[in-house]
Amino acid sequence: MERFSLRAVFRKEKTMIFLSHLDIYRLLLRALRRSGLPLFYSSGFNPHPKISMGKALKLGQTGETEVIFYFKEKITPDEFRTKFFPQIPEDLKILKVEELS
Amino acid sequence: MRDTDLLKFQRPARYLGKEQNLEFKEPQSKDLRVCLCFPEIYEVGMSNLGFRIVYEFFSNFEGLSCERCFMPAEDLATYLQERREPLFSLETKTPLKDFDLLAFSLNYELNFINFLKMISLGGIELDKSKREKPLIIVGGLTNPEPLVSFVDIFFLGEFEPQANTFIKALKLSKSLSKREKFSALSEIEGVYIPDFYCLERNSLQPKEKEAKFPLTWQYYQEFKDNFYPKNWLIPYIPLVFDRVQAEVQRGCPNSCRFCQARCVYFPYRQRPPALVKKHLISLYEKTGYEEISLSGLSVIDYSSLEELLKEIIPYFEKRKVGILLPSLRPQGKASKILKLLNFAKKTGLTLALETANPLLRRKIGKYIDIDDLKELVKLASHRQYRVLKFYFMIGLPGESFEEVLEIGSFLKELALLYKKEKGSYPQMNVTISYFIPKPFTDFEKEKMADFEELIKKKDLLKKSVRSLRFIKLKFSNYRVSFLEYLLSRANRRISPLLREVFLKVEEGADYLDLALWKELSQKNNLELEYFLEEEFSFKSIIKKDGKVFFKSSV
């Protein structure tokens, strides 16, 4: 199945520093499910929206990490901003969104 | 406590109080300040549907500010105690002692100790007669009496029908004295003010002129077409029961004679499937949860279960959302239902059978369809469910040693059936609990089997399945069961004892040490047996409105 991807850079601040890497991962998946975007699901025993997360940020620290989102249709960074941004807490800042070739 | 200090503790997000979907209103100076409390850690408390329902009522009410507090984990509790800092609410980190009102959801006797711990950590005087503020309200109990020394007001039964009237009255009485509050609130159905009653010859009698007698037990008549917690808070950390829940029914159509929930949530009410579907989809859209579950006692008996599942499966299958049902009672259609759920996550199969002997099963009013059960086990083998979970009870009224031993042979028979289909044995996780005769049930006048008998039965059963490697037995803790038995039926004279036990526990004693309970009880010239032998029943001063009362077996 064809898939399209976007790369985003996140910054974890204030309240978000209380969340572990896994908590952030779960938060992003649920936000994706709410966003109404055309999700690309992982295959296997327990399918879920597919994302790839960059380096883990330690609980308690601010910092930046990179996440790749996969969709089954082409999504522009603007569309992503309108639909996905309202779904995440304001202390999880998205610094950059770009298409991956 | 500042947010950054929370980093000293395990899983600090427990105490953050800034979940998504939270619509917190900052308290205004005229507001009634309420803190909803739950005597277990965040992950347990936020899994509780009843707590969420009560929260929805309070948090939506105009002119009051509602926060939450859960039992802190041990690290935070110790920290607070050592520094003499008070336990605080999640939302604004306000000490519990500074609230106007603490409302506790309490539904389990063994949590009484956590309840006292939270009050004491909150910087609040335990003895209600020595404190003016905050007012402490408790809902969810079937026998409130052990807590009368500490609790100002109890709410009896389901909260929904009186919620808005009750909350409004609380708000209006904000500036009144405690005694005036009692008078004002006692008018509301479902409100029980223990100070207005006294114990006479082992039954409760009205003492003050405002005392309602009998009291009424509330149930939600409009359940079928109404309220559910719409504004589902999304936790940042995994909960013990981590999914959105939609109630399909309240009460239970079965008449298992040992079951207290069936009596307390009587009568049986169902929600139409179209409404449940609407609730589930709206909860999903609001949260993006990866699992949903249908909630209720014995969900398999919901009349429109098949219709409902057929309606929701396409929607959730498309979105890769798991649908979960609580434990199944094999009653004819369970295997059919399980077949429908084949796409969902394989969570294993849980069966509450209670006893293996058909005659004894009939005596306790539990009906099991053996063909359906066998079909379920076969289905499980085809579905690659490796683990089957079972629940049994021992110590049932009139139960013989032979009947206990039948559990082993019964499980073996099912395991062989599974093996015939699949070629290997399943793993059977079997939980055995000790039967506790609970008030409100048909067995309320029975005695709990004594320690010696139960341990003998336990050992025999263990021995009988020793060669069956695929069976893993887990027994309840006898001391826990005994305290549950004691506290579920004791009259109010146990309340001071509970306080003394708590104080000893604070000094390092074990809450479950029955010898400690005996010793402290005797110090007050009371034998523990007194509470078990006196036939006290809180039920005797309540009725459900009109003709409807707790139904005995059909």
Notes on the structure:
- The complex is a heterodimer of chains A (101) and B (554).
- Chain A has 101 residues and is an alpha+beta fold.
- Chain A has one domain: Alpha-Beta Plaits (2-Layer Sandwich), CATH 3.30.70.
- Chain A has two helices and four strands; from the N terminus they run E-H-E-E-H-E.
- In chain A, strands 2-3-1-4 form a four-stranded antiparallel beta sheet, with helices on one face.
- In chain B, the strands form six sheets. Chain B has a six-stranded mixed beta sheet, with helices on one face. In chain B, strands 15-16-17-18 form a four-stranded parallel beta sheet. Chain B has a three-stranded parallel beta sheet with strand order 10-13-14.
- Chain B starts with 31 loop residues before the first strand and ends in a 10-residue tail after the last strand.
Task: Tell me, rounded to a whole number, the average pLDDT of chain B.
Answer: 93
Number of strands of chain B: 19
Q: Average pLDDT value of chain A?
A: 94
Anisotropy-based shape of chain B? globular
Strand content of chain A: 25-35%
Characteristic terms for this protein:
A: 101 residues, Alpha-Beta Plaits, four-stranded antiparallel sheet, 2 helices, B: 554 residues, alpha/beta, Rossmann fold, 2 domains, four-stranded parallel sheet, 19 strands
What's the arrangement of secondary structure elements?
The complex is a heterodimer of chains A (101) and B (554).
Chain A: E1 4-12, H1 21-35, E2 51-53, E3 63-71, H2 77-84, E4 92-99
Chain B: E1 32-38, H1 42-45, H2 49-60, E2 64-70, H3 74-83, E3 101-105, H4 112-121, E4 135-139, E5 153-155, H5 163-172, H6 178-185, E6 191-192, E7 197-200, E8 203-206, E9 215-217, E10 244-247, E11 249-250, H7 260-264, E12 269-270, H8 273-287, E13 291-295, H9 305-318, E14 322-324, H10 334-340, E15 349-354, H11 358-363, H12 370-382, E16 387-394, H13 401-422, E17 427-434, H14 451-464, E18 471-475, H15 478-489, H16 495-506, H17 514-523, H18 528-533, E19 542-544
Parallel strand pairs in B: 1-2, 1-3, 3-4, 4-5, 9-19, 10-13, 13-14, 15-16, 16-17, 17-18
Antiparallel strand pairs in B: 5-6, 7-8, 11-12
Helix pairs in contact in B: 8-9, 10-12, 12-13, 13-14
